[in-house]
């Protein structure tokens, strides 16, 4: 805990008048650039060490500044307000100039800020793991010590160091080590294509101690462990976009993921409780932990340097005492807090009491002081069994806990040493010395009893101010630490097993032989990333969850791919929790968590996404704390500490500097019945890692700075410069869209939509067929979608240009007429002009790749039975004639030609099998026509039998034109199904001859309340007429400047009706419709949900044994199952007999024998005949 002296606090920034909360800010450089309010800056543009001052005596009315201060600064603030308005007005409007610039086809020289921001927290956490975390993990890994029975030596296995190399091809492989320019680097693109894992070698320094003497020290290879792409151990680190393209990567390569078996795996960002900060909580489950336990407690999540976390809870008991909970090897221990305090310090009882009541006001310290005196007296008890000294407390703890922890600690420890080791590892382990642990327990005691006496309010772990982020590097190092410790345990088991079986004496040679066995650290790390499940049974592993830790970075669209890097999951535990509190969006989440970018359904509110200006701090830089300590040394001489109520300044290192007095505490207002205090008073400096912070503009300095969620609650932040309240507003938002995620910022006018529609659009944008990658033809992904005829939207937000989303278009500008023209456009259906479709509207392609391994086809692995398959290779039979279908489809090497059209039963590839001495031809079994896009040879090709080609990857592309049943959606969350491809001659047309591409039913607008789509119809039309892009950034229009009036004026200037309506002609009669038709341009998205991927028709096949309905799954041969919706559809057509046949006769119907007299069911047993209960006495 850091205590700030009064003069130091004043020197940071003036206190102002009495009752004014001091504002301690960290200034940053400010550039009055025209894009500075909307363009994110790097870490160098703003410092992340923030100070939050919390005073229990300050209420909302005290947050302003004095009248005199207002008058003195009124003119200055008005000038700052005008300056902010000018800067806001200078922001560039959306345009399409980027499409026509040279930059559109040329990779930039440096990585774009948007791309760098997405992968920065993931990459920095992994780099920190390599630089510091791995070393700290090794140092904190306890040695494995054991005694060989019955009279063998005592052996200790110690880890001293670990190092991670770079991905390289091992010596001895083809092309490695054969020359001066032999290639050894392994690139991520090669692993994607070959279906391998991007790994680097891991080496550990192991020390063997036998009977207290060092017997050997060696460096052991532990296999290859996965490496994060674009980290400091990746060969892509530091490459420019142009260099990335040359090595086969995307120019906008984000990094931050792992490549496992050819798939891109990303470790999820998980929500964790703020580290090293005491939280006063109420949890009903705590009351069931033991006798007299209450629901009140103070929780501290203690995080060490290697990012290991341990929970310590100080419980309040109903008799007024307290117990400390700490865990060792997942077993919880509850110790009286008096014993804990006595075991941590050698101070006298009076000194302990003074430390506990220090800083408490005289009016409220008497009950607390009495309770502490009772606690200290209870320690002594009788003269024989009492705890009188620190040594007595340690002996008692060691004696009582030894039976439960002895097996995991050194057998040579006495009671005192065992207790000290246990307290060091399990009680507030982020603090290295007992003195610092003592101070933290004292603070926890003060906060606990303040909560129990209603002097402090209950805090909330569901609020963002109590959150931090568990990053990929943190989870990775914890799993790696567990696997390395498991390696030591496996060596112990090997040695003991050999001794039990009488395999010779257990000496140095025997231990080294066990060490030399191949450790499976690399295999376990690869399994962890492939499955997302942490190793089971490990006592060293403490994670928020043990499953679902990694996900596939799906590349369905660019929006979906980038959203993975901003996703923040609350934890799998809360999925099954019935309470909705964990899913609610609290007010302090403003600017940190996007309010609309969360899925609907089960993960709603649990899978969130960070706001666009929110950053995750990954630095270990407590420089600000060192400056405060140096300042204390310069000003402490001659100073006197005050004993009034202090706001303690708490940091992760927990160092005391001084006190800040509460100068305006009025105890008379606190003595009213039922009063509950505010937040626990203190000055808290957070300099740890993984904090959530966001950018705002400080009005006093007109500079960008980072603020945390806890500090934000005590600031007055205006959403725009126009909303600044002189004398009260301290900060202003960087932009009006700072509360939204990157994807949500692309929605046109989301403030004009119903909020669920914005949520739907955030999900549908990630399901859109677009341009997921630029090198899509070289991507070996299992399934990729591409829109062949994309357009740049005419109605777009400023973020669209800022992040250059024209590089990844994902929609088509379509002429839409809002008209109820036929019964085919009811509900969510829509009609597409057949001529528009035939001319390329929403045409797309599906890219698939397949890995073909001949050893797998032969039913064996690469290492089993290879001698029986010498000569196995891809080849075409040489005896076939030139007109043979195999010869026309395949090359001499047995592989298909690039550009070959594949129909069902077309020759796909051919290979020679030495088993039977024959050539085998495999046919293409898919029903859809495909085209061979690319063929990769992954093994062999160097000549000779051992270098024969046995492993290839074949990529094909499939054309997908819109058909009836395909799904489309607008950017306002208005999704619909193509119900009919309407002939052109039957499509209504305008007076100008313009024919719509899509007919949309007007009944779909009022029920969804998507006013933004109606505005987009007008705006898209106006933009096309004037040849420019229009601004769709949210919060730009309001009641004084309505969007529809602005768009209507543009239409009027172009000679059209200002309401967006036109006179349309009936294609049947040639006469105009009686009513005008609302028509314009809308940016439509084609979703990946297509009929050709889902339809299934069959007359016979397998069925579910219980329900007697067709089984589920198209790949398993399943059929259409009749549910409630299908039942209603068939009944509406009057086919009652069909439903009876399907749902009763052939599904639920069952025949049983019943006694006509008593109604008893009669059972027929094979070999016995009819049998039933004794009451059966009649006919059946």
Walk me through this protein's architecture.
Helices cover about 25% and strands about 20% of the residues. By secondary structure, it is α+β, with helices and mostly antiparallel strands. The protein has seven domains: about 5-105 and about 620-735, no CATH class; about 115-260 and about 470-545, no CATH class; about 275-465, RNA polymerase Rpb2, domain 2 (Dna-directed Rna Polymerase Ii 140kd Polypeptide, Chain: B, domain 3, Alpha-Beta Complex); about 745-845 and about 965-1085, Dna-directed Rna Polymerase Ii 140kd Polypeptide, Chain: B, Domain 6; about 845-960, RNA polymerase II, Rpb2 subunit, wall domain (OB fold (Dihydrolipoamide Acetyltransferase, E2P), Beta Barrel), CATH 2.40.50; about 1095-1150, DCoH-like (Alpha-Beta Complex); about 1150-1180, no CATH class. The strands form twelve sheets. The protein has a six-stranded mixed β-barrel. A five-stranded antiparallel beta sheet has the order 9-10-11-12-13. Strands 18, 21, 22, 23 and 24 form a five-stranded mixed beta sheet that branches. Strand 11 and strand 12 form a beta hairpin. The termini are far apart. The model is unreliable at about 1-70, about 85-90, about 175-180, about 635-655, about 665-675 and about 940-945 (pLDDT under 50).
Task: Tally the helices.
Answer: 27
Major sheet: order of its strands?
27-39-28-37-36-43
- Beta-strand portion reads 15-25%
Structural class: alpha+beta
Give start-end ranges of low-pLDDT stretches.
1-71, 83-90, 175-182, 633-654, 663-673, 941-945
Overall 3D shape: globular
Indicate the percent of residues in helices: 25-40%
Radius of gyration: 36 Å
Q: Write down the overall mean pLDDT.
A: 82
**Major sheet details:** 6 strands, mixed, barrel
Task: Report, as a whole number of angstroms, the end-to-end distance.
Answer: 86 Å
Strand elements, count: 46
Number of separate structural domains: 7
């Amino acid at each position: 805990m850091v205590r700030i002296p009064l003069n130091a606090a004043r020197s940071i920034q003036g206190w102002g008048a009495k009752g004014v909360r001091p504002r301690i800010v960290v200034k940053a450089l400010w550039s009055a650039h025209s894009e500075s309010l909307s363009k994110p800056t790097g870490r160098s543009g703003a410092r992340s060490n923030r100070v939050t001052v919390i005073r229990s005596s300050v209420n909302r009315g005290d947050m302003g500044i004095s009248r005199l201060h207002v008058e003195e600064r009124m003119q200055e603030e008005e000038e700052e307000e005008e300056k902010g308005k000018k800067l806001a007005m200078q922001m560039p409007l959306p345009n399409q100039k980027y499409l026509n610039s040279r930059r559109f086809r040329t990779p930039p020289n440096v990585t774009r800020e948007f791309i760098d921001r997405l992968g920065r927290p993931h990459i920095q956490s992994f780099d920190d793991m390599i630089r510091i975390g791995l070393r700290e993990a090794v140092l904190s890994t306890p040695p494995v010590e054991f005694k060989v029975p019955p009279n063998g030596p005592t052996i200790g296995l110690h880890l001293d160091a670990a190092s991670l190399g770079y991905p390289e091809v091992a010596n001895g492989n083809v092309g490695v080590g054969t020359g001066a320019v032999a290639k050894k680097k392994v690139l991520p693109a090669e692993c994607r294509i070959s279906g391998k894992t991007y790994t680097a070698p891991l080496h550990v320094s192991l020390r063997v101690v036998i009977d207290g003497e060092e017997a050997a020290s060696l460096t052991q290879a532990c296999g290859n462990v996965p490496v994060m792409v674009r980290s400091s151990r990746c060969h892509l680190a530091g490459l420019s976009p142009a260099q990335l393209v040359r090595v086969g990567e995307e120019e906008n390569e984000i990094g931050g993921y792992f490549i496992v078996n050819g798939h891109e795996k990303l470790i999820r960002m998980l929500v964790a409780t703020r580290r090293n900060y005491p939280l006063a909580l109420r949890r009903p489950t705590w009351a069931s932990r033991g006798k007299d336990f209450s629901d009140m407690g103070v929780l501290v999540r203690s995080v060490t340097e290697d990012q290991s976390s341990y929970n310590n809870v100080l419980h309040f008991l109903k008799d007024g005492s307290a117990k400390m909970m700490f865990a060792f090897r997942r077993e919880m221990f509850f110790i009286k807090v008096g014993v804990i305090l006595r075991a941590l310090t050698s101070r006298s009882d009076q000194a302990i009491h003074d430390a506990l009541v220090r800083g408490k006001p005289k009016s409220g310290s008497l009950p607390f002081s009495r309770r502490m005196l009772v606690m200290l007296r209870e320690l002594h008890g009788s003269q024989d069994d009492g705890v009188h000294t620190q040594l007595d407390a340690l002996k008692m703890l060691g004696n009582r806990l030894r039976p439960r922890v002895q097996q995991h600690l050194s057998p040579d420890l006495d009671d005192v040493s065992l207790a000290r080791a246990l307290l060091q590892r399990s009680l507030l382990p982020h603090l290295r010395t007992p003195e610092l642990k003592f101070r933290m327990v004292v603070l926890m005691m003060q906060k606990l009893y303040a909560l129990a006496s209603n002097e402090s309010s209950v805090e909330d772990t569901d609020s963002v101010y109590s959150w931090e982020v568990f990053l990929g590097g943190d989870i990775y190092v914890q799993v790696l630490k567990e696997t390395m410790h498991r390696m030591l345990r496996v060596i112990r088991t090997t040695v003991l097993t050999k001794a039990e079986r009488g395999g010779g004496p257990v000496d140095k040679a025997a231990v080294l032989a066990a060490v030399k066995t191949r450790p499976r650290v690399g295999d376990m790390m690869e399994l962890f990333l492939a499955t997302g499940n942490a190793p089971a049974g490990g006592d060293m592993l403490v994670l928020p969850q043990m499953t679902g830790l990694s996900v596939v970075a799906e590349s369905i669209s660019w929006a979906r791919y980038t959203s993975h890097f901003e996703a923040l999951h609350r934890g799998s535990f809360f999925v099954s929790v019935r309470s909705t509190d964990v899913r609610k969006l609290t007010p302090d989440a403003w600017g940190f968590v996007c309010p609309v970018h969360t899925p609907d359904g089960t993960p709603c509110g649990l899978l969130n996404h960070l706001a666009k200006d929110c950053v995750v701090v990954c630095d270990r830089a407590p420089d600000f704390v060192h400056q405060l300590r140096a300042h204390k040394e310069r000003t402490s001489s001659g100073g006197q500490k005050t004993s009034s109520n202090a706001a303690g300044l708490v940091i992760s290192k927990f160092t005391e500097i001084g006190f800040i007095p509460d100068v305006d505490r009025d105890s008379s207002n606190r003595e009213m019945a039922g009063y509950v205090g505010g937040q626990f008073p203190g000055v808290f400096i957070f300099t740890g890692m993984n904090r959530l912070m966001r950018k705002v503009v400080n009005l006093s300095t007109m500079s960008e700075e980072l603020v945390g969620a806890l500090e934000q609650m005590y600031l007055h932040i205006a959403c725009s410069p126009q909303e600044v309240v002189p004398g009260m507003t301290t900060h202003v938002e960087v932009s009006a869209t700072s509360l939204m995620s990157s994807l949500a910022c692309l929605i046109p006018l989301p403030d004009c939509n119903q909020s669920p529609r914005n949520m739907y659009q955030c999900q549908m944008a990630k399901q859109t067929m677009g341009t997921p990658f630029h090198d899509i033809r070289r991507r070996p992904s299992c399934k990729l979608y591409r829109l062949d005829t994309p357009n740049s939207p005419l109605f777009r937000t400023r973020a669209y240009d800022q992040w250059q989303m024209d590089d990844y278009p994902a929609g088509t500008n379509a002429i839409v007429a809002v008209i109820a023209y036929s019964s085919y456009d009811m509900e969510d259906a829509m009609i597409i002009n057949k001529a528009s479709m035939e001319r390329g509207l929403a045409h797309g392609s599906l890219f698939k790749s397949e890995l073909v391994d001949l050893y797998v086809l032969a039913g064996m692995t690469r290492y089993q039975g290879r001698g029986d398959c010498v000569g196995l290779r891809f080849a075409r039979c040489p005896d076939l004639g030139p007109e043979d279908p195999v010869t026309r489809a395949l090359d001499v090497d047995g592989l298909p030609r690039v550009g070959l059209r594949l129909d069902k039963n077309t020759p796909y590839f051919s290979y020679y099998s030495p088993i039977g001495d024959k050539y085998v031809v495999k046919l293409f079994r898919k029903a859809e026509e495909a085209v061979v896009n690319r063929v990769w040879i992954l093994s062999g090709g160097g000549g000779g039998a051992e270098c024969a080609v046995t492993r290839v990857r074949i990529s094909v592309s499939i054309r997908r034109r819109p058909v009836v049943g395909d799904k489309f959606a607008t950017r306002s969350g208005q999704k619909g199904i193509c119900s009919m491809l309407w002939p052109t001659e039957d499509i209504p047309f305008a007076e100008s001859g313009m024919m719509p591409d899509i007919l949309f039913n007007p009944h779909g607008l009022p029920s969804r309340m998507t006013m933004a789509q109606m505005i987009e119809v007008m705006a898209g039309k106006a933009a096309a007429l004037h040849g420019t892009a229009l601004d769709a950034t949210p919060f730009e229009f309001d009641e004084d400047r309505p969007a529809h009036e602005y768009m209507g004026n543009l239409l009027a200037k172009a000679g059209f009706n200002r309401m967006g309506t036109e006179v349309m002609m009936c294609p049947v009669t040639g006469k105009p419709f009686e009513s005008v038709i609302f028509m314009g341009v809308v940016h439509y998205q084609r979703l990946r949900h297509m009929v050709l991927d889902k339809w299934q028709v069959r007359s016979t096949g397998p069925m579910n044994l219980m329900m007697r309905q067709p089984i589920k799954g198209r790949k398993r041969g399943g059929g259409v199952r009749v549910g409630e919706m299908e039942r209603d559809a068939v009944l509406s057509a009057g086919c009652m007999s069909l439903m009876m046949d399907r749902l009763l006769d052939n599904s639920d119907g069952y025949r049983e024998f019943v006694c006509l007299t008593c109604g008893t069911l009669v059972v027929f047993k094979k070999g016995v005949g009819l049998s039933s209960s004794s009451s059966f006495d009649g006919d059946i």
